[in-house]
Each structure stands twice: as structure tokens, then as C-alpha cells.
Amino acid sequence: MGIRFTILSSGSTGNATVVSNGEHTVLIDAGLSAKKIDQLLRERDASAKDIDAILVTHEHADHIKGLGAVARKYDLPVYANEKTWEELNKQIGEIADDKRKVLQTGEMLDFGTMKVESFGISHDAAEPVGYTFYEGEQKLSVATDLGYMSDKVRDQITDSDVLVLESNHDVEMLRMGRYPWNIKRRILSDVGHLSNEAAGDALCEVTTGRTKRVYLAHLSRDHNLMDLARLTVNNIVEDRFAKDDHRAKLKDTYYDRPTPWDSLDEA
Length: 267
Description:
Keywords: Hydrolase
Low-confidence stretches: none
Protein name: MBL fold metallo-hydrolase
InterPro entries: Metallo-B-lactamas, RibonucZ/Hydroxyglut_hydro, WalJ/YycJ-like
CATH class: Alpha Beta
Shape: globular
Function: Counteracts the endogenous Pycsar antiviral defense system. Phosphodiesterase that enables metal-dependent hydrolysis of host cyclic nucleotide Pycsar defense signals such as cCMP and cUMP.
GO molecular function, one term: hydrolase activity
Number of helices: 9
């Protein structure tokens, strides 16, 4: 069985994604309450009892809100790099020593035949990362909370079968929005979030004929719209690849409900 996944929730109110190869299952982030994560898992006929480990991208609340509670309730190991652990220690309560796992950025971790590689990203956190999953020839990459698309991230996620990529905000909506300027400046900076336009430009560089689907993730509820994100990204990609056949299908993510299970066997 190949890789399959569901994005339980995506956005500033909470992030969590489940990735499985049938034998092993991991949770990327736990940015909602343990109760909510259990509910969303049930909506996809899954259970936290099936999870083998939690992988942490960074220490912001929308990624770790339920981390301590979920880890303790289900006795799960938690993987993060050392700098992220320094921040987690202040926020998530006690985690047993044998469940505190250090996965340095760039290191590969094996869950049976499914391999996971972390990679550094640009965001205003201690040492934020994304993750790429491999199962045989299959490749799934998850990259959100990106200030910008660095060369290293571009090289890491290029040629994925399926890609989960941030498309956080529409620049004009953000500029005209209610946030104070210091927050807007942070979001627009190289340690902030990827705009719709930047996501479209990035896809033109990282998708190939192998890439079948791209999930637009971490959309702002205040400064973006699902249809707008999809339209903006699609227009950029269509303009660049008008005569090409390797345009990936764009897929939605949600802050209030999980995406359907997606299998890379179908990619």
C-alpha cells in the first residue's frame, strides 16, 4: 500500500495532517485541541490510536495547541529539532523523556518502508521545517508557513507526486485589511507567509509531469478566499504553461473540516 493522507485542518486557527502507508501513520502538527483532533479523525474513519508519532513543523500555537494533550493521551513520541524543542518545553507541558525525539533538520526518519525527511523553511520561528514523505517511488511534500520559496525548499519539493503548498493571502486584501501595519509587514516579509501570487510562481518551478495534485493550504480567513487563491494560482500556471501538459490539479483545504483521503497510488 502506498502513501495516503488527509489534511484534518489548515489555517491560522489550527493545522494537522495525517500521513499513512497502511502500516505506519504519523500526524504532522497538532494545532487543535485533542478533542477536536479526535473528532476530525473520526470524520475520516480514523483514530488517534492508529498514530505512531507526531512530527512538529514549528512552535507557533496554530501548530501545537493540542500537541501535549494528544501526545500524553495516546503515549506518542514527538519529533522536533533541538531549537524547536527549546520552545516546546515552555508551551506543551510535560512529555516523558523517552517520547521526546530529536529529528535534526535535514535528517531522514524511517517508519517501516515509509521514509520522512525534514527540510528547513523561512518563517519567524526557532527552526521551522517542512516534511517530505517517500514510499518506494512515491513522494509527498508538505510545505507551509513559508516566508519565501528558497532554493533549498524548491530543490526539496520539486517533482513531488502530490504537494501541499501554502497559499496564505491575497496581497491587496492583506494591505487593505484590518491588521495593524506591523503584522501586515511580518506576513509580507521573508519570514512570514507565501501569497497566492508567490505560490503560483513557485508551482511553475517545482511541478513536473509527475506532479498530479497540489493542495493550496494555510489560507487566511481574513485576507484570502478559496476561489481567489485557486483562480490566482491557476492563472499564473496556465499563463506559464499554456502549451504544456504538466499542470497539476489544484485542490482545496479547509480550516473547519478534513479533506477526503487522497492516495498517491492514484497519482
